[in-house]
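Entry 12.
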Amino acid sequence: MRLLDKLRHKLIVSCQAEEGFPLNQPHHLAALAATTAMGGASAIRASDPENILKIRESVDLPIIGIYKKDYSGFAMKITPTMAEVMAIVETGVEMIAIDATSRPRPDGKSLEEFIAEIKKRTDILIMADVSTLEEGIQAMRFGCDVVSTTLSGYTPYSSQSDDPDIQLIRDLTRELDVPIFAEGRISSPDDVRAA
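Predicted 3D structure (tokens):
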């Protein structure tokens, strides 16, 4: 069964911690991932090669890998260049998530060029983290396998709310022909049902 079929209507848990927080240690995040696996998660979203490798030792679940990297003068953080893509691909993840917003990339490439290079150099599934319907449409057109609402509310031009962006989820599922992952500020059973 294809990975995307296995993940349909399932829970994916993000096992990450920001730099400087005590939880941001590979063994802590691996324990968190193992706990979420015990609770029924179908996949893990994780950041940083070292953390991903430790998580892989602890769980037998698919991993969506990202690499948060700060580049001076750029707002984009989620797997912004090929250097981060290749570092994550080397961990053996099943899917990689990239920032697919319309913000400038640190390497100067367009989103279309970036996705084309990922597809040329790897055979990994690509998740496009977007903040608007237009970005989702563009990511699908450029070849992303999945579109996720991850960055809604994190770009100045997207919907700003403390609640999940249910309207964006609705719009993406209506307009796109790829799987849509509902992500961002989903924190209660009611939020899950709405999504």
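Annotation: The mean pLDDT is 96. The first strand starts at residue 12 and ends at 14.
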